[in-house]
Amino acid sequence: MVSLNRGFNFFIQSWQIVFRENDLLKLSLYFIFIGMAGTVVMEIPLVTAFVYSGMQNIGQVIGNIFGVILIYAQYAVNYIFSAMTVYLVFGFISKGYRNITRVWEIVNRDWLDILSLALVSTLIYLLRNFIKRKGKAPLHKSLSSLIDRMGTEATGLVLPAMATNDLNLKDGLTRAT
After folding, report:
1. Stated pTM of the model
2. Domain limits at 119?
3. DSSP character string of 89-119
4. Which of 51-55, 62-66, 157-161 has the highest average model confidence (pLDDT)?
5. How many domains does the chain have?
């Protein structure tokens, strides 16, 4: 019960910070709107390729290419705003500042590293789905689930390391390890 109480108190304190620090809330809203707009814009060529080609070979290839681009774009937007949020919280907790312009500087500094992490995540996603589609055997399900969990956990450790310590993807993986 003590652990549950501490977890609940942490949750409450986190939400208090979010409502007290408007920049955190702004970042979340920006993420939602930019993510939705990007998805809608990217789905137009995706759907168009499938509709006009009627799921024939070329339409399926073009649709799949746009699908992969959409997945990559979603990871990229997610990671950019996640890195911004991580750095804002890090700055607030460790240094006491609340400067959103500093957060934009961090993204400008690390954008290539963040996009490379999004590319790796996209490749992991594609590998997981490939293995999942290969068969319905428990081994396929277990392996795809393991790949998914490891990718998610690695991203959860690497992205904050990259954002707070000015590390590239390789050094972020080393630090997270």
Report:
1. 0.79
2. 2-176
3. HHHHHHT----HHHHHHHHHHHHHHHHHHHH
4. 157-161
5. 1
